[in-house]
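Dear support,

Our group has been running a series of protein-ligand predictions, and this particular one with adenosine-5'-triphosphate is the one our PI (initials K.S.) wants archived with full inputs and outputs. We had some confusion internally about which version of the output was final, so please treat the block below as the authoritative record. The input we submitted was:
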Amino acid sequence: MSSAEIRNRFLAHFEARGHTVVPSASLLLDDPNLLFVNAGMVPFKPYFLGQETPPFQRATSVQKCVRTLDIEEVGKTTRHGTFFQMNGNFSFGDYFKEGAIQFAWELITNAQADGGFGFDPDKIWVTVLPEDAEARDAWKRIAGLPDDRIQPRGLKDNYWNMGVPGPGGPCSEIYIDRGPEFGPDGGPEADEDRFLEIWNLVFMQEELSAVRAKDDFDIAGPLPSKNIDTGMGLERVAYLLQDKHNMYEIDTIFPVIEKAMELSGKKYGASGADAHVDDVRFRVVADHVRSSLMLIGDGVTPGNEGRGYVLRRLLRRAVRNMRLLGYQDPALPELLPVSRDKMGESYPELVSGWDRIAQIAFAEEEAFRKTLQAGTQIFDLAAGDVKRSGATTIAGDKAFALHDTYGFPIDLTLEMAAEAGLSVDEPGFRQLMAEQRERAKADARAKKGHHADTGVYRDILDAHGPTEWLAYETLETESKPLALLREGAAVPALTGGEIGELVLDRTPFYAESGGQVADAGVIEFEGGALEVLDVQRPVRGLVVHQVRVLDGELRVSRLAGARTSTTESGLVHAKVDPQWRIGARQAHSGTHIVHAALREVLGPTALQSGSYNRPGYLRLDFGWLNALSPDQVREIEQVSNNALRADLPVGWQYMTLSEAKDWGAIALFGETYDDQKVRVVEIGGPWSRELCGGTHVEHSSQVGTIVVTSEASVGSGNRRIEALTGVEGFDYLARERDVVGQLSTLLKTQSGDIVGRVGDLLERLKQSEKEIEKIRLAQLLSGGAALAEGASDVNGVRLVAQRLDGASGGDVRTLATDVRARLAGDTPAVVVLIGAADGKAAIVAALNDAAQARGLAAGDLVRAAAPFLDGKGGGKADLAQGGGTDVSRIDEALAAVTAALAQG
Ligand code: ATP
Ligand code: MG
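Confirmed final output from the archive:
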């Protein structure tokens, strides 16, 4: 049975049983605790947490998931992929254990002819929490499973919670026995390879008040309404139903392995010494190529941290494993399309977005190939050093540096070392790796701790319900203060100068999101006022203002949760700064307009990858490989400003995600679209349609102006455009105009002639410098006669020893020989000149014949002087020269020459 069929049957099964089919959310769904969506329930979290009311009681989905914890295990086990799809059915306060077990049992055991998966009931095992008698009974009654195929398993395996206070409950997992050839008997407890977990049913039934570990938590009591969350691995079911031995051989993955075989000339599943190692490589290639495809498809670009780094690792590992299989040429252009053809059947956006995906992936491979090349040179140097020193082992820190600095993988280092007849201090390398991993973990723990703080916000949310958020409707509200926090803890009051957080029952303040900064403004209360510094939504539904007390003291009732207790606090007046908001609206609409202009000029593959806007300023990052030409930048600016001048209407409406897609709206990745209805902002009808929760102007002309101030690279495959909007745009242009005005006054020319005028001036300056240089040289040389005349007598030798500032080697030599010619005759004559130019000293000694006859040598004199110049030199008896880098001791150098002559 094909993967597509398994997916369809799953959805159809649950749709027929009253479930709403919900499309997969993006892998990048916003969740502070997750890098990627890793389970089918993630998009439904707000419903399970009671933060939002679900629009349905039953739902089913096939959710894209990425789990990267075991990236190194891929291909070694039979059942773990970095990307996989989780089929799920969900009940929100509707059916519970019995229903979930009934639905699951029907689907897996119904005959294939009747729309089921047709698994043999005798091969099915399940696990339950030992104390969950209810589940055990249900399995016996509904499925007729014998006791010995219902295995008890403890909290670690069979209890689910979110790691934070909230819902929790026992699980029941469904396993298929693959047969005695795959391991010992004894159920999943004995062997998880023979007994393959395909489905996990989670029964959310209790409220946890504290969670310390997976198996260490406090139960506060039963949940008022019980929920079901299940997850069935699509690839795992496929590998069983397609009679394969692991998930990498199924219909949607194996074609990549086939292509890799063709390219490398190696055989998957061969026998022989290296066969297993090669098989793992083939699987890694196929898994990673597919995961990379899905990640880029959802908007990830390679980078050095977070999501981007995961993608980079996957792509690099795929490429490297192809090299290890013996294929040296660019591999992704060959492999990625194979994966696209298979996955595109369920995810058509991979086909429609192919150009962008390919561009990003291929560029990353090119970059990695360069890294490999550079790393290879560094490796050769290191290997050379080791050999010259007579050793045979490359030190661990060298291998680590190659890995860490050049991204040069250890197995490649090992392999190349072996080829060079060397070994690598692998334990040393592993030690350094372990230390680095420890540091990373400590980092992650620190970050987790930060998120755990959301507990306090969740408590506020539980006590008071979600904030009534009125940013679209009004700039001012009368609001009731519900809670005050200082340094993360609830406090009864905030007073003069203090900074803390305030939660109101309703607020007009825009909380930072979708690239738009939070509103600024004040909150006034009887006897005082607060300045709003920041506004965030730390948990969904709750708006939190960070405030500084300007004046007075604000108190809230200590009776948390007492909604009526306003006696101590009264109402406050929340006021968004209207100027700020106008600026923010201009900048946000400006961002959409620049994005649309970008796509008009560069084509639809230019897609925003991030944005930020605040009053007067916007920046937009987008996937694009090359620098834009000045003409392209200007055209983008022009198209943007034409859109302002056209006074396009700006509007927004709510619709379902699929309606939005049909409408051509651009869904930007990483945004949360789990609402049934999404908000689409459009400017000029179809010209710009984006999913967006921000605040906007009503007509494009209200943006005022858009002035692009820069275009630059922000990491591989991403560019950034920055622009100013509204008054800031005008101010910028006005400042530029002032500069031009001052220049034209200075240059006494019209502004249109400034460039030509400055060009002329620069040209004249260059000519003048050349002239000056000529004159300087002439002057220098004309000094020869004077120098000769000024010769002193040292020990019967006529000596000219002189420093020449501004003269370099050639000048000094010319002058020295000139002076010597003037001192020809029977009297010994010595000329020593030291020039100093550009921080360098140049020394020349020239002797006439008589001096040489006296036994003097020019080389000796240069050698006597050079050490003072921090330099060296030498030459023949008649002429020698040298140089040095210290010009501060030229006088001492000359004195040394005189002294040498005086000694004879
Ligand atoms: P395992 O113990 O086998 O690693 P799990 O307990 O981590 O699986 P769950 O979190 O219960 O898995 O996820 C529900 C289902 O999703 C599993 O029953 C399995 O079918 C599937 N699944 C989980 N992780 C993967 C993966 N890395 N690759 C493919 N399928 C997976
Ligand atoms: Mg499980």
